[in-house]
Amino acid sequence: MPLLRCCACVLFALLSVFGVGQARADEPVRVFAAASLTNALEELATQWQAAGHARPVLAFGASSTLAKQVEAGAPADLFASADQKWMDHVAKAGRIAPESRVALLGNTLVLIAPRNRAFKATLREGAALATRFRGKLCTGEPGVVPVGIYAQQALTHVGAWDALQGRIVGTDDVRTALAFVERGECGAGVVYATDARISQKVRVVATFPADSHAPIVYPVALTRDAPAQARAFLAFLRGPAAAKVFLRHGFTRGLP
């Protein structure tokens, strides 16, 4: 009888271990990602689910906000930032697995206007951009939100920052800036090309030269202690099937 009880205990322990392992494997990957990645990652999450995995739980927002949440211990398995600065912030806090970090994607910065109020503009020094439209210019919060950081750099490069500074509306993320321009609440906006292309209510007025701002890079990394399922999902994001989706949504490849 003691032997039978011992065997039963061992069997129960083995079942418990395998049960927990199976449950862990079936748990969805928790992804914190920059708002500009919304459409592409939603599509890729559907592909991942169709391949037999639990659909990832996707949380989108400004990279600055998400980075602070990850730093504070938010339950994320993977963080995708729209710039290196906020990934560096999380890395310094010891919250990511450094070896997993990769510069996955790139993007382009564009000037947009409401479709029925489009104007002509040349993005070069001396072009007097501030005189080309009326009202406010919407972009991410300068100095905080990645698109706002890039926008400030680009507008400064073309000599328009000082003239426009009092007219700039800084938003929580790039999708909010896009929405303001769509509604006509801002006469112009600076967003990523990938965001402009999803809207039928705005028109791209001009594209900022690549050398007018720091390279737009999307670093992606696993958080510390991320499960194997998260590592598999990151490998999927780096693979050829995901690359086709990202390219179709207008992203470019990241740094080599």
From TrEMBL:
CC annotations in GO: outer membrane-bounded periplasmic space
Pfam families named among the record's database cross-references: SBP_bac_11
Origin: domain of life: Bacteria
Gene Ontology molecular functions: metal ion binding; molybdate ion binding; tungstate binding
UniProt keyword annotation of Translocase present: no
Binding site for molybdate: S36, S63, V174, Y192
Cell membrane keyword on record: no
GO process terms (BP): molybdate ion transport
Transmembrane intervals: none
Subunit text: The complex is composed of two ATP-binding proteins (ModC), two transmembrane proteins (ModB) and a solute-binding protein (ModA).
PANTHER family: MOLYBDATE-BINDING PERIPLASMIC PROTEIN, MOLYBDATE-BINDING PROTEIN MODA
Family statement drawn from the similarity comment of this UniProt entry: Belongs to the bacterial solute-binding protein ModA family.
Name of the protein: Molybdate ABC transporter substrate-binding protein
Top-level taxonomy: Bacteria, Pseudomonadati, Pseudomonadota, Gammaproteobacteria, Lysobacterales
